[in-house]
Amino acid sequence: MMTREFPPAVPEIPVTDLAVALRYYQDALGFTIDWRDDDLGLAGISRDRCRIFLANTPFRTGYGNVGPALTWLNLVGNDAVDALHREWRAAGATVVSAPESKPWGLHEFTAADPDGNLLRVFYDFATPAAIATREPDAAAAARAVADAIARRDVAELRDLLAPEFSHRTTAGVVTTADAFLDGVAAIPGTIESVRLDNVQVELLGDTALVTGTQHARVVLDGETVEDRRGFVDCFVRDGDRWRLRSAVEL
After folding, report:
1. Burial of 189 by CB count in 10 Å (0-12 exposed, 13-18 middle, 19+ buried)?
2. What is the second-level CATH architecture of the domain 135-249?
């Protein structure tokens, strides 16, 4: 029997004004407009691996689907949920509720769009299924670092680094935390995304080695530049969290 990997769902969010909705999702929520058809009344947007369709009233006539709609966005850790909340709030998004760890095992917050559609952002930290299948926390910390780099959030990134952090480039140059952060702030162009693939974790007591491939997309002078490179990150446990001690580019 042929087996297939089931694809991510693409929700259709009902909107009244396609142009207004697109501006909000791009400016306040950080999505990229992939395509739009004003005559049809439909547009496609994306952010990293998340894809959404926005559909206006004429397009939905005959289908019977009306708003407001609720869409869940599953992130990779409590830190990622908190970081996205800070990003959206700073960008002027309508935040309905602040991040909170709920008794049912989800750390979550809720945001709304101009039509009252809700985006419920969460990390499943304590339900039985999550405990059985969750990525090691060090992997979530590595993804939080990548997300902070994508947003050029130097303050968030500094908090994720251990005090003795060092960074080794592919050329063998070793830099300090301050130089590394200056380098992130000085990346030319617009960073569209920084994604980690094929992540593996080896736990050695209070140390974790995280390896994988970093895939970055940057728009420079109107052109999209993609960079893929291997990495080895060393995280150390600091209380109940992991912080990045060293990062090596391969």
Report:
1. middle
2. Roll (3.10)
| CB atoms near residue 21 (< 10 Å) | 22
Cα–Cα distance measured from residue 149 to residue 187, given in angstroms and rounded to the nearest whole number: 10
Q: What is the pTM of this model?
A: 0.55
How far is Cα 113 from Cα 244, in angstroms, rounded to an integer?
A: 35
DSSP string, 86-107: HHHHHTT-EEEEEEEE-TTSEE
Q: Average pLDDT across each block of 10 residues of the chain; the chain has 250 residues. List them in order.
A: 73 96 97 95 94 94 87 89 94 96 88 97 72 62 89 89 90 89 90 88 86 91 89 87 88
> Which pair of structure tokens corresponds to residue 101?
């760890």
Cα first-last separation, the chain? 39
Domain boundaries defined on the chain: 12-129, 135-249
Task: Please list, in sequence order, all residues whose beta carbon lies within 8 angstroms of the beta carbon of residue 1, skipping any fewer than 6 positions away.
Answer: none
**Please, what is the Cα angle at 133 between 127 and 139, to 5 degrees?**
110
Element spanning 159, H or E: helix 154-160
In 3D space, the residue among 212, 216, 210 whose CA is nearest the CA of residue 246 turns out to be 210
23: helix, strand or coil: helix
Angstrom CA distances, 216 to 36, 191, 225, 236, 248, stand at: 25, 8, 8, 25, 16
115/20 Cα distance (integer angstroms): 10
Is residue 115 a contact partner of residue 21, using CB atoms and an 8 Å limit? yes
Strands 42-47 and 190-204 turn out to be unpaired
CATH number of 12-129: 3.10.180.10
